[in-house]
Amino acid sequence: MRYPFKPCLISVATLLISSPVFLRSTLDAQPPQWKVEGELAQYFAAETAKIQTNSLTHVDSAEQWNDERPEREKQLLEMLGLQPLPARTPLYSTTTGRLEGDGFRVENVHFQSRPGLYVTGNLYLPKEPGHKYPAILYVCGHGGVKKDGVSYGNKVHYQHHGAWFARNGFVCLTIDTLQLGEIEGIHHGTYRYDRWWWVSRGYTPAGVEAWNCIRALDYLSARPEVDADRLGVSGRSVGGAYSWWLAATDPRVKVAVPVAGITDLDDHVIRGCVEGHCDCMYMLNTYRWDYYDVAAMVAPRPLLISNTDRDRIFPLEGVMRTYSRVGRIYQLLGHREDVALHITAGPHQDTQELRIHAFRWFNHYLRNTDELIEKSATKFFEPEELKVFSKTPTDEINTSIDEVFVPAANSLGSLLASDSPGIKKASSDWKRQLTNLSFRGWPAEDTAPSTKLLGRVDTGKLNMSAFLMTTQPNVSTAVLWFQKGPSKRAKLLVVNDEMWSEWADIWQRIIAEQPPLEQQREFLAKHVDQDSALVVVVPRGQGPFRWTNDTRKANQLRRRFYLLGQTQDGMRVWDIRQATRLLRQKLPDSPLELEATGTSAGLALYASIFEPAPDRLTLTDLPPSHRDGPTLMNVLRFMDIPHAIAMAATRGHVKITAAPHKVWDELAEQLGEIGIAVSEGATAGGATLVLAPAK
To answer: Under CATH, which number does the domain 12-403 receive?
Structure first.
């Protein structure tokens, strides 16, 4: 059905050609603290460009799109932590209160999208019973309402939307979000609470919100007042984002109007809009999509993309790029008239201008009418009237859903105890999963490191060099090389920011081509053996090439990586791989020891798995689980640190020194049972495990 009117629509071509000052307005509004400069900015720009270049550009026919769509849907569900979909358990829907409004009625309702995961909402119904009405799921943005420490949910803030729909011939269910609902969960895991294990687990609260929306459609479809063949979704801000997730993954949505809920990676990563958003905005971008790919999943169903022109966190330029890219898919499918862009004046606000076009869009496609809007969206109730719970259910899991939403990997012990095909086959499977799900953002395997000599000092007893190593375009890392003479052995020592303080002054003196001071000579004497070369590498963003000293900024830089289908730690694994290649290239006949401490030990462990095995892998203070680092995308879905140690131990000698922990005790026993030679010991710092492959 062709949409016959286009009020408030803006021509993308006209804006791009005739209004350069207008287009710059949102760019100029970006807060300065969001900016990234220098080499890292170039890196983010290049990685973003790679993704955008591949986003939908290869699709040139409806047949191709239809062939690809099922796999795309699987990928999107997986990036939301929903592949496979959870079981559709009973909703146990309950109405806890009823209200009468001016031409409509309201039910205060709750249901469980999975056992203990409560969704609270207000169901707005037309006054006249006995009819089947089209229904809208309205998903709320960040507009929480609290009084005296009691949360009434963001559904209360957005009640005027539901009331309008019910007064105009729709059923509307307005639901709370996880963090701002009556039961307050958490959206800000990586943004504020240092829950970086979410990324390792493959968890995002966006997945919880998407699942709650899917089950909300189940609830609506079961209501006798609802025509389940006429369902729509809308919401603004993060509610707009959830509208995208739902419309993209559930074909029951026949019409979608996401408001201020999407822009592209250029805005999120390069211009820094990620710093204005919490984790609920983002899928875990395993398959390196841009948001064009998400939006296109709605095609060919009617879609109105709605935004304001001065929105700092959903800038106009990215919204228009999204519309343009998605419009091409609609064109291929023969439905170009069913997608439109609606831009009004203003900042990131819920305005009447945005509402009116949304209401008319739904009227046209779900009620087959183009009547004028005569009633405004009005709030009728006090927060207390719309509250669902008088007290919080004791069995709620809303506040701990991050622990259970995405299934975790089986323990190494359970895998070895089962009828598995053996550790070598399991290792092959884990490596494949690491490649596809954790390290998909690595460069091509044949990318070689390059080096630039920055300084050299030869004391006659010790040759010292400082290099800049480029591990991929726009990534500089520091390398120190020490050698007393012909080397029979080589050690690659991975250091982080904390450890770099011991090497920083030596680095500076070598660059200045000045011999080390007495204290530095004593330090080097403890680390450099007579017949061994010592190579010290500092992976990206640390040491002399540290990106920032600001803790908050450092966290926001980390967040940019997972929007690109990478993690900061995962890319540091790549840097260590490149350093091992460099060392083997320079000293091809020397046995190699790889050594690291703390989280860097975890990075070195994974680097060793993807390169020819070092002759010895020495890991100190290795975290017992990825819950404590390092952060690698999705890894906890299929393995953990013990699994990685088992992989390494089947290939070469591994020495682990760490604080006593039951993980190490269990690991020693489990590896011994599969033929790994295990010797245990104790040191002043804790326990020591020495592992060697079976002969």
So the answer is: 3.40.50.1820
The contacts of residue 648 (CB under 8 Å, 6+ apart) are: 605, 608, 609, 613, 617, 654, 691
pLDDT in tens, 536-583: 999 999 999 999 999 999 999 999 999 999 999 999 999 999 999 999
- The per-residue DSSP string of 547-596 comes to --S-HHHHHHHHHHHHHTT--HHHHHHHHHHHHHHHHHHHSTTS-EEEEE
Residue 3: band (very low, low, confident or very high) from pLDDT cuts 50, 70, 90: low
Q: What's the pLDDT tens digit per position in 432-466?
A: 999 999 999 999 878 889 999 999 999 999 999 99
CA 375 vs. chain centroid, Å, equals: 41
pLDDT at 694: 74
Q: Reduce the secondary structure of 509-556 to three states and give it as a string.
A: HHHCCCCCCHHHHHHHHHHCCCCEEEEEEECCCCHHHCCCCCHHHHHH
pLDDT at position 414: 87
Neighbouring C-beta atoms of residue 350, cutoff 10 Å: 20
What are the φ/ψ torsions at residue 692 (nearest 5 degrees)? -145, 145
The pLDDT value recorded for residue 144 is: 87
Q: Where are the beta strands (DSSP E) in 381-517?
A: 450-458, 463-472, 475-483, 489-494
**In this model, does residue 13 exceed pLDDT 70?**
no
C-alpha 402/C-alpha 153 separation (Å) is 20
Spatial separation of the C-alpha atoms in residues 666 and 688, rounded to whole Å: 13
**Could you tell me whether strands 171-175 and 133-139 are parallel, antiparallel, or unpaired per DSSP bridges?**
parallel
Percent of the chain scoring above 70 in pLDDT: 94
Task: Indicate the pLDDT class of residue 680, thresholds 50, 70 and 90.
Answer: confident
- Helical residues (DSSP H) of 19-144, grouped into ranges: 20-28, 38-54, 62-79
Mark out the alpha helices in 390-495 (DSSP H runs): 412-417, 423-433
CB distance 332 to 61 below 8 Å:
yes
pTM of this structure: 0.94
Percent of the chain with pLDDT over 90: 87
Give CA–CA dist 29/348, Å, rounded: 12
Sign of the torsion angle spanned by Cα atoms 500, 502, 508, 509: negative
- The tens digit of pLDDT for each residue in 355-386 reads 999 999 999 999 999 999 988 899 999 999 99
> Which of 454, 453, 452, 458 is closest to 516 using CA atoms?
458
CATH architecture of the domain with residue range 425-450+485-498+526-692: 3-Layer(aba) Sandwich (3.40)
Closest CA to 580 of 453, 493, 645: 493
- Within the chain, which residue ranges are assigned CATH 3.40.50.1820? 12-403
Helix (H) or strand (E) holding 201: helix 197-201
| Among candidate residues 614, 581, 609, the one with its CA nearest the CA of residue 595 | 614
d(CA 470, CA 460): 29
Q: Which residues pair with 535 in a beta bridge?
A: 481, 492
Q: Is the pLDDT of residue 51 over 90?
A: yes
Dist. CA 643–CA 649, nearest whole Å:
10
Is the CA virtual torsion 558, 561, 562, 568 positive or negative?
A: negative
Identify the three-state secondary structure at position 455. Answer: strand
CB 662 within 8 A of CB 411: no
